[in-house]
Amino acid sequence: MTEYFNQKANLDTFAVPYTGAGPAKQGVISDLHLYTFETASSVLALIKSGKLKAIALASDRRPPVLPNVPTIAEYGVQGVNGSTWNMIFAPAKTLKYIVEKLNHVINKSLTNPAIVK
């Protein structure tokens, strides 16, 4: 995401190849690096605690949880959308009936108006 953003924004910064989001966030918190791209849900508590500052969102619109943070497009850099997919995993040898039960419960929960909202 950093390299894509650099290209779109015509920046010449170096993307540090961390082994995961945790170390990347820690690198920014401890002032080792200028910025990182992370999912809003993974940094919301750090933003609220003041450990991180939300600068811009790599999305099409501002989410309700961060209404005062502008999108990257609002800063004039178009085409940077870092939408993520969240998945549910189980061990490869999970019994079929358990997977089917999980699938049923998850899909049923996705029709709950409170969850959809």
Protein model, in words:
The structure is a single chain. The chain is an all-alpha fold and 117 residues long. It has two domains: 2-84, D-Maltodextrin-Binding Protein, domain 2 (3-Layer(aba) Sandwich); 87-117. Helices cover 38% and strands 0% of the residues. The chain is built from five helices and no strands. The protein is globular, with a radius of gyration of 18 Å. The mean pLDDT is 89.
Offer a few descriptive terms.
117 residues, mainly alpha, D-Maltodextrin-Binding Protein, domain 2, 2 domains, globular
Query: Can you tell me the CATH superfamily of the largest domain?
Result: Periplasmic binding protein-like II
CATH topology grouping of the largest domain: D-Maltodextrin-Binding Protein, domain 2
Instruction: Please state the overall shape, judged from the principal axes of the Cα atoms.
Output: globular
How many domains in all?
Answer: 2
Computed over alpha carbons, the radius of gyration is 18 Å
Q: Sheet bearing the most strands, described?
A: none
Total beta-strand segments:
0
SSE arrangement:
Blueprint (H helix, E strand, L loop, with lengths): L1 H8 L11 H9 L10 H9 L47 H14 L3 H4 L1
In short:
The chain is an all-alpha fold. Helix content is 38%, strand content 0%.
